[in-house]
Every structure is written in structure tokens, then in C-alpha cells.
Write a structure and sequence with these properties.
alpha+beta, 2 domains, Beta Polymerase, domain 2, five-stranded mixed beta sheet
Length: 260
């Protein structure tokens, strides 16, 4: 079997054990963290879907969704943890189109699953066994290096085989139950933020109503915001609110791991 299709590499993580210890993980958990980081998997940002035609890719996702759902649930049952796939199985088309319009790349998460655990120790123990049940083609430790919002999980990209044709890549996340709970609430903020960001992109591409193509829409002159002052303020405040919520969630996780 050929290896994953990669984009130009960005290099792997260094010093994962030291970073994990500095983050407050136990020595045993830090070792598992370092072992996963040292497996040599590329970063998800450095791989591409083997299938380059979107319509064929979407059809493959629909066809493989039931088997992926069964595999994720079976994995959770074997590990004694909560595990399932995205409601509706395949990512909504409007979200796919929106993400593609920004990245111009075929999404890796048309199919997505999550495994929810109750401690950082269990997080890495469960993640350690993912390669025993799935073909891992990419991995990112977003506990050590959280997303800009402060959200943390362990992100795998796994290959799903099929009868003929290229494999299909799907996303499998392993995350703490507190982050799973908070993600459900924060997602509402994200939806509003996403709408404002989409509006910002649209205003860059098209003139406002009543304007000709030779006229500048709101704030497209150099140094001015694309959004109105109120919209820009809401966008900034929502971003800060998300970061605050996830930072406080991480503090709860740490307090749970190291009670006074």
C-alpha cells in the first residue's frame, strides 16, 4: 500500500515528553505522548485526500460512512469509552463548500468520529491503541499545541479502504469529556463567528448592494476593516470569549488531574 499523499512537509514535533511534563502530565502519560509524537506520522496539514475529484470523494464518504460508524463504535466498546461519528455521518455540503472556498483543498473530515474519555491519562492510553484498529496516515497533538481558540484534543487522520479505487481519509478525534461538553456550547459562538467571517470574505469579493464594481464597498480602502465597526467588535469579542472558555476548561481538566 502506498503511503499518504503529502503536501510539502512542515516538520514533526520535538521534545514532546518535556512539553508534556511542563504541561503537568504524569511521567507515564508524557512517555505515551512522546511515543505517539515519535511515530513519524505527518501532520494533517501535510496530507491530501487521495481522491482528487470532489464528487467521487463525496460519494465515497457516503458509501463508507456506515462501515466507519461501526468501526468507531466498536473501538469505543472495546476500550469502554464513548465513541461515535458525526450526526448525519457526512459533513454538511454548505460547510464543505465554505471550507473549500477558503483552502481550495479537499477536506479530510467529510467523515468524522470522536472518542471521549475522562482523564488525560486515559486520553493518551486510548490514543495509543488507535493504530491497532485504524490505519493512521496523519496525527496532531492538539493537547500540547492547542488550536488558536484554545481547543485541545488528539487528532488522527485514518484511511478507510474499499473495493477498488483510492482509500478515503477520515478524521478521528480523541478528547477529554470536559472539552467535548464545552465544544457543544462554544460551537454556537463559532457559528456566529463563522457567519461574520464568511461575510467578510464575501465583501472582499463583491461590491455592496447599490454599488458598482468600480466603487469600494464598506472598509475595503487600505487600513480600514471590511466589516462594520459593530460587526468587527462582535467578531473580536466572540474570538476572545471562545479562548476564555477553552482556557477555563483546560484549567478544570488540570484541577481534576491534580486536586488540591
Amino acid at each position: 500500500m502506498t503511503g499518504p499523499r503529502r503536501r510539502p512537509g512542515r516538520g514533526g514535533p520535538d521534545g514532546a515528553e518535556g512539553q508534556a511534563l511542563a504541561l503537568g502530565l504524569s511521567p507515564a502519560t508524557a512517555l505515551r505522548c512522546a511515543d505517539l509524537a515519535g511515530r513519524g506520522w505527518p501532520d494533517p496539514a501535510d496530507v491530501e485526500q487521495p481522491q482528487r475529484d470532489f464528487f467521487a470523494l463525496y460519494a465515497a464518504a457516503r458509501n463508507r460512512a456506515p462501515a466507519f460508524r461501526e468501526a468507531v463504535r466498536a473501538f469505543g466498546a472495546r476500550r469502554g469509552v464513548q465513541a461515535d461519528t458525526r450526526p448525519g455521518d457526512v459533513k454538511r455540503l454548505d460547510r464543505i463548500v465554505e471550507k473549500y472556498s477558503v483552502s481550495l483543498e479537499q477536506p479530510l473530515d467529510l467523515l468524522g468520529g470522536k472518542v471521549v474519555v475522562g482523564s488525560l491519562r486515559h486520553l493518551y492510553e486510548v490514543a495509543f491503541t488507535v493504530p491497532e484498529h485504524f490505519e493512521v496516515v496523519a496525527y496532531r497533538d492538539r493537547v500540547l499545541r492547542p488550536q488558536k481558540s484554545g481547543y485541545r484534543d488528539l487528532q488522527f487522520v485514518v484511511a478507510l479502504g474499499g473495493a477498488g479505487g483510492p482509500p478515503h481519509y477520515a478524521e478521528l478525534k480523541v478528547l477529554h469529556t470536559l472539552f467535548d461538553q464545552m465544544d457543544g456550547f462554544e460551537h454556537r459562538l463559532y457559528e456566529i463567528r463563522r457567519g461574520l467571517e464568511a461575510k467578510e470574505r464575501d465583501r472582499l469579493r463583491e461590491p455592496q448592494a447599490g454599488q458598482g464594481w468600480g466603487e469600494e464597498p464598506w472598509g475595503t480602502n487600505f487600513g480600514s476593516p471590511i466589516l462594520s465597526p459593530v460587526e468587527q467588535m462582535v467578531l473580536e469579542e466572540l474570538g476572545q470569549s471562545s479562548r476564555t472558555l477553552f482556557e477555563r476548561t483546560w484549567a478544570l481538566v488540570q484541577a481534576q488531574e491534580h486536586p488540591p
